[in-house]
């Protein structure tokens, strides 16, 4: 009795952070009003007297306005940060657990090697959860026989692996991670000879499994296709080597045709929702990317601490875990940990719940079906309009429906026909799939738009970040992949911010003000590109021409500007450090923010505008998960790898050259004209940029290795910088 009364989870407000944040908001807010007082009075003076050029002052003013607007939105993340703790050992017995379906998406075995994908699949099957309540679905958007064959092999291996995990209560159930862990025997059986013998045997089987995958993936690169019929295979023969039931494992390649839109990952997930509805129809769904394996087998139990709590509102749509990565080097050069997001998510959680972060979340199936569709008295025609014409699928919407899978797990002919229909590329078209039902197709960041829809319908979410990460994925480990990935994210975010779904408009009356601010801050993130470019170009050109844009050192308003700059940097340092990271992480984050703004965001904003006017089609460029040894060495050593398309690198180098030149010329001018006090801020800005990004200089001038910036890119950048300087000079002196 005592046991059931203890809470399954707790939520703590981070009081110290809350106080620091609010004090910071107050002081920075006050300083910003001082800054705008200064700007407005100077601008009106300039307009009256025309003694100084108006254009650069106006541009700097606009950029400060934008910075401030984005800053204000960001403060919602700082308003009420919370953390959560769960107590899975207080859960009721296994027989009270609801079934869970696991969805894993993969798209191309040449960019997403089978071995990694299969490790994710196996780790999901090995979750510490009743196997008869677990079903794992692998969506293969490549429809590749390499992947299908790998799934069959993984199924065979897992018949040995699952009983081994269960018997010895392994904490690491991803085989690759288990066998390569330094202390793989994190279990209590280290000195038991039976365990050691079994482990050796399993390791042998694992190596055979790996070999079979290697042989199988020789033609991986040509095996993915964009033109194929649906292929669905449920692995049969469902008992493991200890005669226990295995979880369901199904391979699903939805139909793809070159002329039909397939909506990328969101489309794949929606096909899985439909197919799984008529096979296992679990009320909860775990979504994983193919590289995010389960690192802690208790994640489902942790999520159930919320779903099984009678006190928690039934409107809980999802329990989100962070994306954590197993391949981060000590330096985390490319800010792959994505810490700035997870820090914000603590605050997001405090105001109604974080947004979906792509994968690693336990979702309530009902939430994806649309609130209006799951009422009891709904008529059949309405349901067909929403869900398409499959009666079988519509029957599954009532959650008590338990589809019948024959004992030997071979789909009956009728079932096989039905699942193929549900995975066909036309199934979506006459229905609300992707519009109101399932994952939303509107943007390439399907996660953000889908969760915004859920929150707007009154659903809530929680953020759980336990000390031992539940999932571990792989993040990009070179500049090119990082910039390409961010460009897609930024493009997706811009698609939302330029549409009627921008939370600022769409969220009104549907979400709380703080939640609206969080969502808006999120989707407006790429807009930093505008003030960033202004501050990276305008003060510099004006420095060369001796046009002061900021107060003199002796002016009292100088303190206001200095305060705004230092307070915001210090706040960033405080956040990095209080989250447990080193001072260097602050620098890496700052650098990556600058490089992303200079490059990814620039193209993303242009792409989104072209997409909006119909001149460009946004698409999903898959992030590469296959390593390259040279690149890995550079990454481990903490050396930037600048090998990337010139398109991506040239903007960064051009800005760098422009800042170096303007600083040198500007300093010469300052010495000559003794205008140090007047031009102090303007000399400081390029100096700051040049020092923070000194590795760009290194890459252009000092390095000789493969990861340097090539001479041709440096030359191109110098030409661009000269052009911007000349053109800017013409324009900015007015
Ligand atoms: O047409 C596609 C494209 C992608 N994927 C899968 O989607 C997942 C994420 O793709 P990835 O290339 O790894 O992109 P990331 O940028 O690393 O993904 C992040 O950003 C995405 C949104 O842009 C989210 O969906 C992801 O969960 C999040 O990890 C992978 O498992 C892919 O196999 C598909 O199934 N079909
Ligand atoms: Mn990924």
Q: Can you tell me about this structure?
A:
It is a single chain. The chain is globular and about 90 Å long. The chain has 734 residues and is α/β, with parallel strands linked by helices. α22 crosses α24. α4 links the parallel β3 and β4. An eight-stranded mixed beta sheet has the order 5-6-4-3-7-11-9-12, sandwiched between helices. The chain has a three-stranded mixed beta sheet with strand order 8-13-10. It has a domain of 267 residues. The chain is built from 27 helices and 13 strands. The model has no long low-confidence stretch (mean pLDDT 94). One of its GO terms (cellular component) is membrane. Keywords: Cell wall biogenesis/degradation, Glycosyltransferase, Membrane, Transferase, Transmembrane, Transmembrane helix. InterPro entries: Cellulose_synth, Nucleotide-diphossugar_trans. GO terms for molecular function: cellulose synthase (UDP-forming) activity. It is found in: Endomembrane system.
Give me the side-by-side strand order of the main sheet. Answer: 5-6-4-3-7-11-9-12
What is the approximate shape? globular
Q: Number of helix segments? A: 27
Strand content: 5-15%
The radius of gyration is 28 Å
Helix/sheet category = alpha/beta
User: Compounds present?
Assistant: uridine-5'-diphosphate-glucose, manganese (II) ion
Subcellular location: Endomembrane system
Active site: 141, 447
GO biological process, one term: cell wall organization
Membrane topology: Multi-pass membrane protein
């Amino acid at each position: 009795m005592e046991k059931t009364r203890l809470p399954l989870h707790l939520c703590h407000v981070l009081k110290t952070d809350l106080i620091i944040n609010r004090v910071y908001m107050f002081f920075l807010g006050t300083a910003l009003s001082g800054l705008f007082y200064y700007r407005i009075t100077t601008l009106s003076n300039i307009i009256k007297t025309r003694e100084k050029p108006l254009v650069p002052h106006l541009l700097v003013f606009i950029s400060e306005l934008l910075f401030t607007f984005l800053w204000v939105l960001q403060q919602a993340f700082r308003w009420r940060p919370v953390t959560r703790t769960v107590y899975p050992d207080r859960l009721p017995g296994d027989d009270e657990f609801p079934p869970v379906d696991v969805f894993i998406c993969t798209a191309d075995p040449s960019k997403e090697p089978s071995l990694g994908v299969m490790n994710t699949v196996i780790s999901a099957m090995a979750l510490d959860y009743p196997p008869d309540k677990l079903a794992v679905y692998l969506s293969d958007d490549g429809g590749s026989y390499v992947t299908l064959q790998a799934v069959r092999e993984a199924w065979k291996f897992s018949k040995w692996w699952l009983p081994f995990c269960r018997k010895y209560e392994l904490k690491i159930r991803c085989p690759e991670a288990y066998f390569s862990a330094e202390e793989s025997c994190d279990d209590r059986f280290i000195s038991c000879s039976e365990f050691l013998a079994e482990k050796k045997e399993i390791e042998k089987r694992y190596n055979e499994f790996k070999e079979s995958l290697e042989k199988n993936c020789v033609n991986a690169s040509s095996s993915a296709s964009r033109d194929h019929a649906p292929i669905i295979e449920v692995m049969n023969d469902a008992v493991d080597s200890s005669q226990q039931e295995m979880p369901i494992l199904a391979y699903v390649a939805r139909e793809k045709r070159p002329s039909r839109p397939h909506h990328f990952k969101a489309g794949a997930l929606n096909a899985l929702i439909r197919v799984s509805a008529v096979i296992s129809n679990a009320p909860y769904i775990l979504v994983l990317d193919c590289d995010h394996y389960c690192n802690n087998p208790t994640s489902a139990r942790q999520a159930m601490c919320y779903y099984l709590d009678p006190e928690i509102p039934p409107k809980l749509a999802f329990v989100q875990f962070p994306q954590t990565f197993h391949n981060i080097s000590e330096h985390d050069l490319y800010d792959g940990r994505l810490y700035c997001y997870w820090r914000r998510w603590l605050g997001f959680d405090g105001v109604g719940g974080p947004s979906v972060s792509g994968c690693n979340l336990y979702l309530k199936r009902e939430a994806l079906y649309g609130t209006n569709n799951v009422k009891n008295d709904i008529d059949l025609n309405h349901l067909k309009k929403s869900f398409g014409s499959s009666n079988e699928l519509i029957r599954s919407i009532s959650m008590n429906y338990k589809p019948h899978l024959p004992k030997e797990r071979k789909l009956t002919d009728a079932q096989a026909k039905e699942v193929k229909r549900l995975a066909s590329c036309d199934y979506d078209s006459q229905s609300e799939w992707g519009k109101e039902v399932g994952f939303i197709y509107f943007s390439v960041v399907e996660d953000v738009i889908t969760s915004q829809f859920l929150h707007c319908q009154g659903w809530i979410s929680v953020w759980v970040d336990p000390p031992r990460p539940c999932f571990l994925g792989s993040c990009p480990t070179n500049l090119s992949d990082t910039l390409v990935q961010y460009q897609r994210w930024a493009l997706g975010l811009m698609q939302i911010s330029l549409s009627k779904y921008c939370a600022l408009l769409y969220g009104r009356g549907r979400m709380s003000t703080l939640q609206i601010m969080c969502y808006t801050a999120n989707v407006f993130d790429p807009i930093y590109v505008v003030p960033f470019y202004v501050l990276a170009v305008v003060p510099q050109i004006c420095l060369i021409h001796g046009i002061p844009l900021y107060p003199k050192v002796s002016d009292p308003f100088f303190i206001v500007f200095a305060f705004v700059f230092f307070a915001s940097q210090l706040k960033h340092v405080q956040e990095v450090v209080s989250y447990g990271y080193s001072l260097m992480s602050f620098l890496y984050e700052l650098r990556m923010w600058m490089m992303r703004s200079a490059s990814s965001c620039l193209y993303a904003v242009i792409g989104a505008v072209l997409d909006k006017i119909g001149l460009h089609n946004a698409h999903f460029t898959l992030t590469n998960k296959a390593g390259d040894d040279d690149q890995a060495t550079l990454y481990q050593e903490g050396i930037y790898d600048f090998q990337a398309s010139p398109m991506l690198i040239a903007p960064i180098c051009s800005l760098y050259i422009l800042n170096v030149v303007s600083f040198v010329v500007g300093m010469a001018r300052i010495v000559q004209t003794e205008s140090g006090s007047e031009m102090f801020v303007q000399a400081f800005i390029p100096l700051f940029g040049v020092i923070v990004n000194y590795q760009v200089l290194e890459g252009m001038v000092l390095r000789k290795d493969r990861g340097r910036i090539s001479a041709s890119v440096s030359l191109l950048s110098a030409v661009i910088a000269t052009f911007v300087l000349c053109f800017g000079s013409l324009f900015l002196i007015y």
